Amino acid sequence: MSETLFDKIIRREIPADIVYEDDALLAFRDINPQAPVHVLFVPKRRIATLDDARGEDGTLLGRLLLAAAAYARAQGFAPNGYRLVVNCNADGGQTVFHLHVHLLAGRTMHWPPG
Ligand code: 5GP
């Protein structure tokens, strides 16, 4: 699958409010936030969907979760709590086909989600 706007954000070709970066990951604020805090954690190496991930991607996927958790801890959201979301394909609500983890915080989340 061809590249998405997230590749352009990673290459700094379009602007984003970047809050975290390391050798493998970039995190930036969602342009249409669904909570007071809404950050997207994105691997620099594009995997289109979670359904495309394979065993060799396990370390990268683990790093995504750990980076989001570390960010939440560092920003002080962890004691109250937060939510991580991965949307996969159409019924999952995925619109950008570059795997990413949503970090939502700053309000009480509801269940079931919409
Ligand atoms: P998905 O629906 O694929 O799980 O999530 C894609 C997310 O990317 C959406 O929450 C959407 O608001 C966000 N998004 C789409 N375009 C842009 C953009 O140009 N910049 C930023 N920062 N976020 C975007």
General description of the model:
The chain is an alpha+beta fold and 114 residues long. It has a single domain (5-105), classed as HIT family, subunit A. 25% of the residues lie in helices and 22% in strands. It has a 5-stranded antiparallel β-sheet with strand order 1-2-3-5-4, with helices on one face. A hairpin with a 3-residue loop joins strand 1 (18-21) and strand 2. The longest helix is centred in the middle third of the chain and has 18 residues, at 58-75. The mean pLDDT is 97. Residues 5, 16, 28-32, 40, 87, 93-96 line the site of guanosine-5'-monophosphate.
CATH architecture title: 2-Layer Sandwich
Mean pLDDT over the full residue set: 97
Return the string of H and E elements.
Answer: HEEEHEHE
Structural class: alpha+beta
Principal-axes shape call? globular
Bound chemical compounds: guanosine-5'-monophosphate
Instruction: Summarize the biggest pleated sheet.
Output: 5 strands, antiparallel
**CATH class category label:** Alpha Beta
Features of the shown structure:
single chain; binds guanosine-5'-monophosphate; HIT family, subunit A; alpha+beta; 114 residues; 25% helix
Write the layout of secondary structure elements.
Layout: H1 5-10, E1 18-21, E2 25-29, E3 37-43, H2 58-75, E4 82-85, H3 89-92, E5 101-105
Antiparallel strand pairs: 1-2, 2-3, 3-5, 4-5
The structure holds guanosine-5'-monophosphate.
In short:
The chain has 114 residues and is α+β, with helices and mostly antiparallel strands. It has helices at residues 5-10, 58-75, 89-92, and strands at 18-21, 25-29, 37-43, 82-85, 101-105.
